[in-house]
Amino acid sequence: MARTPQVTRTIQTTKVNVLCLNIKEGNPFNQEVVLPRTYKDEKHLLKAVEKVINTDDVKAVHVLDSVIEETLYGMSEQKFIELATVLPPRKSTDKSDENDTADEEEEITAEGETETTIEAETATTTEDEIVRNAINRKHNR
C-alpha cells in the first residue's frame, strides 16, 4: 500500500484540572479542560479557562493542576483541503520597490578630512553594497 501524503502539526496543549462551582446548586466540582498553547502563569491560565467554562450556572474558581502535552496531529491532504479555511495570500516582504537611499552626516576629523556616517540603509542593501557606496562617495568628492 502506498503511503498517502499527510498534513501534520505538532501542537502543545495544556490539560487543566479546574475547581468549579455550580452557582445554582452551590456544589463544587472538578472539571478537566484541554486548551491550545501554553501559558506563562496560573493567572493567565485561569483567564483562558474561564472563557471556556464560565456560564450562567458554572464558574471556574481555581486551577488545581495543569500538564503540558505535545501531540502530533495529522490528516490526509484531501481531508485537509475539504476542512480547511482558505486564507488570503501572505504579503510579500520584498522591499525592492523602495528607494535604497541613506541618510548621511558629514563630520570633519581632527586631520581635516571629511568623514561620512551612514545612518540607515534599507534591508535589501547588502553589507558589500554599503561599503562600495561609502567608498564611491568618498572618492567622488
Give the key terms.
three-stranded antiparallel sheet; 2 domains; two-stranded antiparallel sheet; single chain; 23% helix; 141 residues; alpha+beta
Describe the structure in brief:
This protein is α+β, with helices and mostly antiparallel strands.
Describe the structure.
- The chain is an alpha+beta fold.
- The protein folds into two domains: 6-80, no CATH class; 103-139, no CATH class.
- The chain is built from three helices and five strands; from the N terminus they run E-E-H-E-H-E-E-H.
- The strands form two sheets. A three-stranded antiparallel sheet has the order 2-1-3. A two-stranded antiparallel ribbon has the order 4-5.
- A hairpin with a 5-residue loop joins strand 4 (103-108) and strand 5 (114-120).
- The longest helix is centred in the C-terminal third of the chain and has 13 residues, at 127-139.
- Residues 99-107 and 113-123 have low confidence and may be disordered.
Number of beta strands: 5
* Rg over CA atoms: 29 Å
Low-confidence parts: 99-107, 113-123
- Principal-axes geometry comes out as elongated
Largest sheet: 3 strands, antiparallel
Could you say how many structural domains there are in total?
2
Which structural class is indicated by helix and strand composition? alpha+beta
| Helix-strand topology string | EEHEHEEH
